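Posting this for the archive.
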Amino acid sequence: MSSLPKGHAGAFPEGSRWRQGHRLLPLLVCFKLCANGITMQLDTTNMVSVGYNKYGLLRDDLLYETEDVKEAIRRLPEDLYFERCFRIKRAMDLTMKHRILPKEEWVKYEEDGHYLQPYLKEVIRERQEREAWKKK
């Protein structure tokens, strides 16, 4: 039986390497679970079990890119945007090489902030305001 959460077993074809216990499976499930554009509230236990910190990713790097999230990313300051791109590209490179970062480079729980949340909240507030205005 699949080790995926209920309702996610069909996300990967039978016999694929993702179903055979690939080490990034929890990370991919995390992407799937964040599909509504809201961050998961992770404690240190979940952070370690998901393992995104081993690839240098932050929590907000795992958000599914809905229209709201895309707009929030577009509004990021240039330095935050380039840091985000670097982290994602590095994680993809490490995945392709079947490696993780050295332990001293892992993101620590205390360092894992919500850099995108202020921008995302603003985008959502503006969208809700527009929707309310259109209803009038």
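The CA atoms of residues 28 and 47 lie 14 Å apart. The longest helix spans residues 78-96.
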